[in-house]
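Section 4.2 – Deliverable D4.2 (structural model, holo form)

The reporting period included a commitment to supply a predicted holo structure for the target in complex with FE2/S2 (inorganic) cluster. Inputs used:
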Amino acid sequence: MSMGSDMYRQQILDHYKNPRNYGELEDPTYTHVGENPMCGDEITVDVELVDGQIERIAFRGDGCAISQASASMLSERLTGASVEELVDMDRDDVIDMLGVDISPMRVKCAVLAEKVAQDGYEIYEGEKDADRTTTE
Ligand code: FES
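Output (structure tokens):
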């Protein structure tokens, strides 16, 4: 294992053990819930938007280290970002953010929070059916 990937593994473990922005927002612009159908783990994401900027983002739920660390890292990365940054994110951006090789089985874990946050925004914007639950 290279030094670099060891550092990223430590970072993932740290975010898993001490998740940032874990909990709920008092007055979110939107809230969305989604699950990983492979395991049934669920994540809820709250986002507060102000003038197209992500003012705050919080998440809660259960999941493996990758899904929880990914949600925590995503919440840090997107706080203060434009909503376009969230909309433009894809699978590769999330994997880059995590910095480790993700097996195909774990990709759904890695992208769960990102998909929930994106789907929630699309529902909020009226682009997706409000009954839709995100499954990744
Ligand atoms: Fe459930 Fe990863 S095993 S989200």
